[in-house]
Amino acid sequence: MKNFEYFKPTSIKEAVEIKSKYGDKGRFLLGGTDLVIAMDAGAITPDAVIDLKGIKELEKLEKTSDSLYIGANVPFAKLIASEFVKKEFPALWEASRLVASISVRNRATVAGNICNAVPSAESSSPLMARDAVVLVEGMEGSREISISDFFVGPRKTALKVDEVVVAVKVPLIGKKFGECYVKLGRYEGEDLAQVGVTTFVDEDKNYNISFAAVGPTPVRAKEAEEFLKGKELNDEILEEAKKLALKSISPISDIRASREYRYHMAGVMLTRALKASVSRMNNGTPEYGTKLI
Question: What is the pTM (predicted TM-score) of this model?
């Protein structure tokens, strides 16, 4: 591992100033579950590591009047332990439970997960299905980035070189709804998603659909959402929605799955997730956390 400067700022302002000085050669550290491994392998060789764990305000996990506020240093384990998250953001809760292992979930954060911007990022799909907003701070001040605009390519985000993610804000719904996150992996445990699907439906029959691991970035299936709007699900409707949704993805073949397998399973998973979301809204079943694939 290459030598580097280590900083542990106590304020966001200080962190931003340090990052501005080092630019692309400075790296923020939260849980470190990806960064430390990459540094150890020599894949990332920063001149400076800026440890954000000394900034107390980044540890906030709280309900506001209209949203869930997830501070940048909130680990997945804290989301899993929250009954409020399970009740109001159940797809995010389901996804959090499937992140790697217990030890990783105790350190890894939602902010770190999306900043890595790998196409299979566990939290990306449920956050996108709920129109989350990423709150960032930089030398020029603060701004909000829609989660749909945050990912610009594999391991690339819309963050400027001096910006740091402060929190992720996820809107509350305020009406009856059901949702679902389904992950396809090769085995139980620490495996990246071959396909990730999140579906959402509310009592007015508004549908949201998002995919992960089947394109260079997570993606919303807007055409399928528009088709489903206001409709009751049946076999014919589901088949047409599946066809439209699959037009939004562009999977590749790699060591974990072939392109063709990903296409097929994305359709299977979407159908099951849509049915489960509607059933959860209407009947409360299947219980959240139930394995659907």
Answer: 0.96
